[in-house]
Amino acid sequence: MFFSIFCKFLLLGCTSFGGPAAHIGYFRKEFVERLSWATEEEYGQWVALSQIMPGPGSSQVGFAVGYHRAGLVGAIAAFLGFTLPSVVLMCAFVALGMQFANSAVFLGVLSALKLMAVVVVTDAIWSMANTFCKTNSTRLVALLGAVFILLWPFALSSLLLVLLAAIIGAYWFTDSQPTQIKTHISSRVAYITLAIFCGLFVLTSFIHGTGWLALFAQLFQAGSLVFGGGHVVLPLMSEQLADFISTEHLLTGYAAAQAVPGPMFTLASYLGAVTAPEGAMIAWALLATVGVFLPGLMLMLVGQKCWQFVSHKPRVQGAVKAINAAVVGLLLATLIFPIIPSSVSSVWQATVVLLALLWLRTRQPAIWQLVSAFVVAGMVSALF
């Protein structure tokens, strides 16, 4: 089971360009629609939960999918598979000085996969809207949510949107049918995880310096406090790692993280690799990766158990209904900016996106088929 889950997420980790919104679309297409590992309702609540907790949202959703499928072993397999390709590429950037990132073939494939991200996110928005925006009130929440994010795209806007939607839903959507999403997480596991998180958070707040332990501590603190996804982690890391790395290196790593598939939080892998003493690049990169991801994944375990205790209450169900609609609006806003402007720059590319979307909606190809088509198209366009 570990190997099966690992391989599924490894493929997604190699091809998931486009940021957290696209990752959520990839996961939904593969694990809800094609493999039926989770229901639409279960997946929707994991997405909603990831939006109100610190940490890497898409990685938390993947972690929850893996846990739902095969317990802690499945969760670890999902995290390793999805994160490993990005970590390897970030270390390669450090080792090779980002030279291969300028090759024509690499840039052609990257451009094609960005177009694929537009297709996948659009498909996810369409499908999730059909599930979570069935009434005029939920459609209004989604529309207002998209407008809010587009007009005020500040660091914590997505968190504020989700909180406002929860308040609105708790008071105006209380006619929701009470349903409870069950979780395999035991109370013992949740309490132990929470205790370990709290202990590590307190302990790491007292660790300073420039050694490997201080690197882990500063990144654990950053991972515990980041709301709003990968892009928000940059200013926090800039503050936390002021003694470790220059602003130039930080911005170079940030650019590299946007050029590779997978979660933006692997910026930490680059920072660990570039600050490592000679001969310790891999060890420091892995240590940094664990440090920044661990808090969000631990909180996802705790959050799911807490969610189970309250999810059957009508007001909570109303809040979830509004949050799910707001997430649809958030995805729509992300598609409008920055995904489309950074991916589609010509009528020809727009035509490719529309044809691929039509293929995806009518034929429902597997994710590997979609990826293969875009990779081949990107290589052909680069060579000819």
Automatic annotation (TrEMBL):
Entry superkingdom: Bacteria
Family: Belongs to the chromate ion transporter (CHR) (TC 2.A.51) family.
TM spans (from-to): 72-97, 104-128, 140-173, 185-207, 213-237, 249-270, 282-302, 322-340, 366-383
Localization in the cell: Cell membrane
Chief location of this protein within or outside the cell: membrane
Keywords, alphabetical: Cell membrane, Membrane, Transmembrane, Transmembrane helix
Plastid in keyword set: no
Protein name per the record: Chromate transport protein
Membrane topology value: Multi-pass membrane protein
InterPro entries in the cross-refs: Chr_Tranpt_l_chain, Chromate_transpt
GO cellular component: plasma membrane
An example Gene Ontology molecular-function term: chromate transmembrane transporter activity
Leader peptide range in chain numbering: none
The keyword Signal is annotated on this UniProt entry: no
